[in-house]
Amino acid sequence: MDARAESLGPRSADLSTKRVVGFACNQAFIFYVFYMGMNRGWPFAGFTVERIDLLCILLFMVLGFLLVRFHSRASRQVLLTKPLLFVYAVVMAGASLVFPQLPDLSDGWMAVEGALIGFSAAFMLTAWGRALGEAPTYTATCEVLVGSLVAALICLACSFVSAVDVSRALCLLPVASAALVSVPAAAGESHRPASGASGDAMVLSAKVLVGTLCMGAAVGFIEAFSSEPGREAISYYPVSMLLFGAFLIGVLSLLTSGALRDVRALDLSYRIAVFLMLLGLIVIPLAAASDVPDGGDALVLAGYLGLQAVFIALFLVLAKINAFDAAVSFSLGFLALYAGEFLGVMLANVFDAAQVDFRTPYTVVVIAGALILVAYIFLFTERDFSNLTEIATDADAFELVCERIRTDYGLSKREGEILEFALRGRTSERIAGELSITKSTVDTHLRRIYAKAGVHSRQELIDLGEKLRNK
User: Fold this and answer.
1) What is the pLDDT of residue 466?
2) What's the chain's average pLDDT?
3) CA dist list (Å): 350 to 45, 69, 221, 354, 385
4) What is the pLDDT of residue 30?
5) Sequence-ordered list of residues with C-beta below 8 angstroms from that of 264, at least 6 positions apart, any chain
């Protein structure tokens, strides 16, 4: 346990019920549209493209994340305003309620459904990224995990209710999500990477995105083989939700235990999620001839959902260490995740169309397993995960020290900004350049900070910060 993190007091009490419940509503809706509907097919050139509904939603979510990523900060702020979030919520609720009830939708209307849900879901997710990014990494991580657990329990409970009641209830969840999300009025890249961050962190960020894409592709490939057009998309989703919930409880116990109360415990969770996916792939061929043919698929999906929850926390870590707007970090992360899932479903359809006899579970397992192993062993390893979370943990400790000094000694907003630079050892000239003010103004603010904090020099101020961090 890092004493610097411990010194800043209990953190579990910092969880926001509003953020947890709102994020749970958002995630439960996504689980619903991805896994709890029907496998809708699209006849094309004598072949039926499976999960065309999911493909359309994923495609437009990817496009939505691209829009968020490449828009200016001002444009992103407009996209994520509260009134527009309610518009997105109503659009998602309406489209998910109406379109599945319409028989034999034409190709164009399927695309319209995908666009309405996909774009809106992408913008809502990035809004949640910014909202969660306001909290310290440990707090936000716990909120993501608890919210995901609540979402899993909602979906599990709905598996015991009639299909009509489920659709009506779950389709309204985006409205609750929009009501509960609080997006900061002005958030953006500060151009001040976290203490300890370097070019290595940017390289690791790229490896995260490529590894995430491979993981998504592996699961999308398996999902497309889980059912036939006209049947339930994922018939085993209740089992997956149960296993997913158990995984989240285990991760939360690790994060809040006396020995591992730190976001660095997530690297162990990453290993467990990958293990679940690989175990499921081993079980798939063995279960194909048994009375539980979907047992392996259920394990793969549970592991993937667990991996997704851990990755969401990681997206927040990347925002912290690279000084990104968390909305940008979320858009990049989910862009890779859902682009991978889209490619996986497409690959499965191509593979299915090329077969002349029947599906071969061993071939499916080899392809999906190869994607997972390449991502885990060569792209984004457990050590990479640990390095990123360690940087974020140090950044959290630094931010909490700055907040403690600002609060205890009554610093002004500008003095608080200069304090961060001073504790990092920046010169007055460097601070002036970063904040676009004169050096004399910086020196004046520094003298006021020294007087309020009861110190006489910059070194004594740095010593005070170190004392608070290690106290």
Assistant:
1) 82
2) 81
3) 13, 30, 10, 6, 33
4) 95
5) 2, 386, 389, 390, 393
Beta-carbon contacts of 90 under 8 Å, excluding residues fewer than 6 positions away, are 174, 175
Which among 239, 243, 235 has a CA at the least distance from the CA of 273? 243
Give the separation between CA 378 and CA 293, rounded to whole angstroms.
Answer: 31
Residue with the larger pLDDT of the pair 257 and 154: 154
For residue 241, CA distances in Å to 112, 159, 221, 247 come to 29, 10, 19, 10
As a whole number, mean pLDDT of residues 365-387 equals: 78
Name the residue among 232, 243, 337 with its Cα closest to residue 296.
243
Give this prediction's pTM. 0.80
pLDDT over 70 at 140, yes or no: yes
What is the rounded CA–CA span in Å between residue 122 and residue 335? 9
pLDDT tens per residue across span 161-170: 766 666 678 8
CA dihedral 116, 118, 124, 130 (to 10 degrees): -140
DSSP string, 255-281: HHSSS--SGGGHHHHHHHHHHHHHHHH
